[in-house]
Amino acid sequence: MPSNSGHPGRILIVFGVLVAALFGLMAINQTWTPKLGLDLRGGTTITLTASNITGDGAVSEESLKLAQTIIQNRVDSLGVGETEVTTANGNQITVAVPNVQQDELVRLVGQTAVLRFRAVFAAEAVQAPEPEPTPTPSGSPAPSGSPSPSASGSPSPTPTATGNGRPAPQLPTAPPPPKTPRPTEAGKGTPEDKALTWQPSQVDQAEFATFQCGDEFPDVADQPLMSCNREKTEKYLLGPTLITGDKLTTASAGIPQNDIKWVVNLQFNQQGGEQFAAATKHLYGQSDPMNRFAIVLDSQVVSAPGLNNGPILDGRAQIEGSFNQATASELANILKYGALPLAFEVSSVDNVSATLGGEQLQAGLIAGIIGLILVMAFAILYYRGLAIVVLASLIVAAAVTYAFMVLLGASAGFALNLPGIAGAIVAIGVTADSFVIYFERIRDEVRDGRSLRTSIETGWLRARQTVLIADAVSMLSAVILFILAIGAVKGFAFTLGLTTLIDVAVVFLFTKPLMSLLARTKFFGGGHKLSGLDPNHLGVAALPGLRGRRRRPATATATADAALKEA
């Protein structure tokens, strides 16, 4: 970096503009306080108990770790910081998240998002129930209307004979036989490659006639399913799974070209695309409702479109409906991170109180204030007037750190926790260490016979390398700790790294130019005894730059006296 000796005033102005820009962004976002972590603000903790849906009944460690990663990604999609997703007891996942309401987190995390595509064998309109005052948690808010998938880049297929106009399926008039227990595990029914040829039995049809929306029905991959749409205005008899959600490679929300409505785009992998093409070829051309397939998300039918526009052969589909950006993005996130090998039951939901954290925060702030007072007391006693530089630099560093925490909280979800505050307190010592290195180097240069102003520049050239090395060590420690640590300790590592970078910027762009300007003043540049740059304090008989100027009047007087004596 340059020595910053040429135009220190310009450098301070540029730095001031940058700091003002940070606070200007805060004003634009109308955000003036940082987000607080789980231990300071409180939040929600959810415990999920896993069960296997692949047929063997056991929950493997690999499956649980995969589910943990997917849930972590799903929670991170909210843009929150300091989330903790941990496993316990071999079949449980605990999710702790700050800054998120309980209902929102239950809706997102409590949803296992098991996505399946099934053929429709019967569909019947039902009367919509009265809205409930308190909705039960679900994977994502259901968009109003009936969303329908379509091939990418083509108009969406529209179901035929929808709503109350759909004829009811032909059902037996004889009394229905008694219900038989349905299998709750896969492996005893119809595999995927035989699902297209499956036909409902009389027992299935009879049970469908008495099925009501809200009735429990086991959602097993190789078994038929009876379900309703999210609005509970239509019920369906569905065949075994044609395509599973793990064949879905990605899901995204967007607005197609030449359109103004939000959609959710789906993309299958090669195997899923081939299965999807085979399924839509088989269903195309059959009579309603046998020409329809259902997109089933956690036992609920998201959409059940017909294939009147032809089969879908490219492995791409769109879910269309009355989406807005929020509902489309949330559904896309659930589908994208929802191909779990496990099903989860919400075992407990707890709100975390911030009372204890508030007390610890108060104690931490008191400790930080005491540390700052001690640093300033040392600076005043040892460096005297230069304590102004220390105080100004610490205030600027604190302001920049605060601005970054607020902006990162608003843009990236950074949440300030107690370990993070500890990292900020440690930064006081890191910043003070930079001052000590620089000031002591100035003293060394003056003792070597250089003028004060020259010592400030040459001392900086020698001190900055030491400052950079010290900050690099601190930064490396923060990076390693951030990578290896888990949970709240990451907050300490992140804050330590952030404040270390800010320390470099403040020392180079504020402390050094400020010293160059102060050296040009009479109080500091003239070596006033309270400036901290006086000869006695620097350990020299006189400041080299001033000694020559003081001797010239004395020499002239002696010459005049000698001339008078000779006369």
Number of DSSP helical runs: 15
Radius of gyration: 36 Å
Note the main sheet: 5 strands, antiparallel
Structural class label: alpha+beta
CATH class of the largest domain: Mainly Alpha
Which runs of at least 5 residues are low in confidence (pLDDT < 50)?
Answer: 134-168, 547-567
CATH superfamily membership of the largest domain: Multidrug efflux transporter AcrB transmembrane domain
Describe this structure in words.
The protein has 567 residues and is an alpha+beta fold. It has three domains: 8-36 and 354-547, Up-down Bundle (Multidrug efflux transporter AcrB transmembrane fold), CATH 1.20.1640.10; 43-108, Alpha-Beta Plaits (2-Layer Sandwich); 113-129 and 137-335, Gyrase A, domain 2 (2-Layer Sandwich). Helices cover 46% and strands 18% of the residues. It has 15 helices and 15 strands. The protein has helices at residues 8-29, 38-41, 61-76, 102-109, 202-210, 270-283, 325-336, 355-383, 387-411, 418-447, 452-484, 489-518, 522-525, 535-538, 544-566; strands at residues 35-36, 43-52, 84-88, 92-98, 115-125, 144-150, 225-228, 234-244, 248-254, 262-268, 293-297, 300-303, 316-323, 342-352, 415-416. The protein has a five-stranded antiparallel β-sheet with strand order 7-8-5-11-12. A four-stranded antiparallel β-sheet has the order 3-4-2-14. The chain has a four-stranded antiparallel β-sheet with strand order 6-13-10-9. A hairpin with a 5-residue loop joins strand 7 (225-228) and strand 8. Helix 1 (8-29) runs antiparallel to helix 12 (489-518). It is elongated. The relative contact order is 0.14. Residues 134-168 and 547-567 have low confidence and may be disordered.
